[in-house]
Amino acid sequence: MLPWDVARELAHATGTPLKAVSKPLSDAGGLVLASPLVSPMAVPPVDRAAMDGYAVCGGGPWRVVQHVGAGCSAPVVLTVGEACSIATGAAVPSGATSVVRDEDAVLVGELLQGPAEPGRHIRRAGEECQADELLLPAGVVVDPAVLGLAASVGLNRLTVIPQPRVAAFVTGDELVHRGASGPGRVRDAIGPMLPGLITRAGAQAGPVQHLPDSRQALIEALRSTDAELILVSGSSASGPADHLRPALAALGAELIVDGVACRPGHPQALARFDDGRLVLGLPGNPLAALTAFLTLGVAAIRRMRGLSLPALTFAPLPGGVPCHPRSTRLVPVRVTAQGAVPLGHGGSAMLRGAAAADALAVIDPGPASAIAARLLPLDPGAQPWAV
Ligand SMILES: Nc1nc2c(c(=O)[nH]1)N[C@H]1C(S)=C(S)[C@@H](COP(=O)(O)OP(=O)(O)OC[C@H]3O[C@@H](n4cnc5c(N)ncnc54)[C@H](O)[C@@H]3O)O[C@H]1N2
Ligand code: MOO
Q1: Domain CATH number, residue 219
Q2: From the CA of 378, how far away is ligand 1's center (Å)?
Q3: Are residues 211 and 139 in the same domain?
Q4: One domain for residues 170 and 289
Q5: Atom of ligand 2 nearest to the CA of 349
Q6: Which residues lie below 8 Å from residue 216, measured CB to CB, with a gap of 6+?
Q7: Using alpha carbons only, what angle is made at residue 200 by residues 33 and 164, rounded to the nearest 5 degrees?
Q8: C-alpha 282 to ligand 2 mean position (Å)
Q9: What three-state secondary structure class fits 237?
């Protein structure tokens, strides 16, 4: 049974970043830069007007000689005493010393007057970046602003790490997928959570497949997929219907994490096949499955995506939360301006607390109560935050 932090770091270390590929910008969103983003050109490439108005040369008054639209590429030259009307973003004519905004411009006949400090309202060539300048290091998530930046420096493609593929097998003869639980029937609450968790963690979710409680069926399922990460729920303990560890042993997988000292979620397991595929065992109790995915699953996926394991930020726990003497407690909390407030309903078979929560408070083992805790976001796509 490994301490929670050790298990999480081990899961991260066990993942292997996928091989970098080149993708058009339209397919690169959400992936991680595999190489630094370097601008191939100076931006802006030429001096541009920052306002709609008039480009002027020297002191006023000026005679308006022509118009320069944003898409105008013909060379325009101004000499002292001349002006041309200009649109925001248009290249300023050579000779222009300033731009007078429309609202500051006074036009009397063909003569223009207005304030014209040298350089005013002109975006200088190279002001945002120079050619060959490093803009972002490898390891940054390509979010919308990164896509826009890449486009604005003239790139059509990015070198990125593709999404890992995640297969999901939900086991349990007692499970039903429609209608109510009852004697001998338990409504599957893990299957509906997995696609969103996988997607929000930045991976590609295959269909959730349901398996009977059969060692052979599990062995065949594990053999059948080439996904980089395979989730198996509901076979993690040591009962007669819990086939995960025997199936992994039969297939020669290496058990990397065999239980984690946390509550809920202690029977979780992580194993690796010779070909590098990882298997994550999610305990059958639904909150335990969720905590296991957020602990080991997110850590392994982040490494496969080329991301580090973020340090979690602390928040105060008003009133304190009792520690467990030996295990890390994972407690559903809502993050407020006053700190992280436990919501109750955090038993391992319940999702009511988690569904209303923003995060799990990570309560380190100890003899008494914790007055602050790290926060593990319930949304695996969220950044850890502080209050
Ligand atoms: N002798 C021991 N028994 C148990 C231990 C233990 O250490 N020794 N650990 C308990 C804990 S903690 C957990 S968590 C579970 C883990 O069990 P499994 O991963 O083997 O899962 P099951 O036994 O199949 O199911 C446990 C529980 O969860 C319900 N379940 C299963 N799958 C789903 C699902 N998809 N949706 C909703 N509920 C599900 C299942 O019906 C059981 O009630 O083991 C404890 N026992
Ligand atoms: O640890 Mo179990 O995973 O509490 O429900």
Answers
A1: 3.40.980.10
A2: 21
A3: no
A4: yes
A5: 5
A6: none
A7: 55
A8: 10
A9: coil
Domain containing 112: what range?
Answer: 48-123
387 pLDDT band (50/70/90 cuts)? very low
Domain count, the chain: 4
What's the predicted TM-score (pTM) here? 0.91
CA of 178 to the centre of ligand 2 (A): 24
Mutate to test the pocket of ligand 2, among 285, 290, 293, 294 (most ligand atoms within 8 A of CB): 285
3-class secondary structure, 167? strand
Place of tokens 């909150």: 287
361 forms beta bridges with 331, 375
> Ligand 1 centre and the CA of 323: distance in Å?
23
Choose one of 285, 291, 293, 329 to mutate for the ligand 1 pocket test, by most ligand atoms within 8 angstroms of C-beta.
Answer: 285
**Residue 385 maps to a domain:** no
362 and 235 housed in the same domain: no
In a domain, 73, yes or no: yes
pLDDT tens, position by position, 287-325:
999 999 999 999 999 999 999 998 899 999 999 999 999
Binding site membership of 162 for ligand 1 (Cβ less than 6 Å) = no
The rounded distance, in Å, linking the Cα atoms of 307 and 303 is 5
What is the distance of C-alpha 203 from the center of its chain? 10
Q: Does ligand 1 lie within 6 Å of residue 281's CB atom? A: no
- CB-ligand 1 contact for 327 (6 Å cutoff): no
Would you state the structure tokens that stand for residue 386, as one six-digit string?
A: 């502080």
CA distance 103 to 113: 11
